[in-house]
Predict the 3D structure of the following.
Amino acid sequence: MADYITIDRSPALSGSIEACGAKNSVLKLMAASVLIEGVTVLRNVARIADVEVMCAVLRALGVRVDWSAPHELTLDASTITSTTAPYELVAQMRASTAVLGPLAGRCGEARVALPGGCNIGSRKIDMHIAGLQSLGAEVEIRHGYIEVRSPAAGLRGAEVLLEFPSVGATENLIMAAALSRGATVIRNAAREPEITDLLDFLVEAGVTIDGRGTAELTITGTTKLDEVCHAVIGDRIEAGTFLAAAAMTRGEVEVTGIVPEHLEIVLRKLEAMGAVVERGASSILVRASDQLRAVDIQTLPFPGFPTDLQAQFMAACAVAQGSSIITENVFENRFMFADELGRMGADISIEGHYALVKGGAELSGAAVRCPDLRGGAALVLAGLVAEGTTTVHDVFHIDRGYEGFCEKLFSLGARIERHSGQD
Ligand code: UD1
């Protein structure tokens, strides 16, 4: 039997925790190391399962990957020995597709398995492909692989207009553009803080980039990138998860190692729910003494409300006073955990990409299963306020993106325990 977590109704959480380095940033920074014919050092790297998968992807390409300190990775991409990201790895983690752009730029070719179905929607890859084609690459889908071939003279800069500000497509294009001839302009680019982190990294490597933090990026390619030592930004999604937990338990929690502006819309929602929020230079404190009030939330690309916090806030709305409408605009099928929350007594009706959450429910502990990473975290949060014991199964989903999730909650006073499958 696999590991599981038990949670008993917990007192108000209280204390301080430090956010880890952002998962969605480090995975792309690791992929970007392929662009550099030399050594990349990444600091503030979270020890999470997805990072280990990306280590395996890079090793398959011939990159030497070492943990040089507990939260520091040294990646030596002096020699690339393969341009194939195999299915066994891509199937484990869709973000493996982030090596497409760097390989096409550096090696002139890339073979990356199609990620296939995913439990939070169909998650297409068409914009990544169209973008690379604009830079002159030939792209074919054969035998379940995306095969990219650059022209003999290499990729060349171009203007690309994205249909939707896709995070992954923007990143793949940025990385491909870094080693292209001339300038690439990306319009309607995603503006997530993790993208700005990638752009900062590339600037440190010697790439000229205009428009950082905006929806129009101009990347002027170069022929060789410099070695880089870079600290990953704090994980706003991890931070937001703990802040939601603080509000739900009517506690007082500080999260450090985070840029408050990265969570501004989330903090405003917490305030609208009745919590007090204090923004520090690199920390956020949330204090909630009364019962939370319902709020409506719609997920949108940054700076809108992050889809990766939708589940955790739905759990908060389930125990708030009043009804909330939650609209998921970024992914289809991202309400799967709502059924599990329903098993704990939450009153949620789903209609397409809308969820009506009738708050004020008295949740009761139950056996539940993580459907995905963030849904799993939301179930743990619900367990903190549910009467009795909640048992959360399939916690490998949570391990993908949270380092020491149980330990951190425990340190804040949660009555939580992780059990190994042998128990
Ligand atoms: C990244 C994050 C994920 C987050 C998401 C949105 C990582 C590793 N993952 O995922 O945690 O929830 O951003 O903030 O960074 N789409 C297309 N065609 C494409 C690409 C995307 O139709 O070529 C669609 C997707 O199906 C989805 C939407 O665009 O509905 C957003 O996807 P995207 O922004 O690309 O998310 P990811 O990069 O996959």
Remarks:
- The chain has a mean pLDDT of 96.
- The CA atoms of residues 308 and 374 lie 6 Å apart.
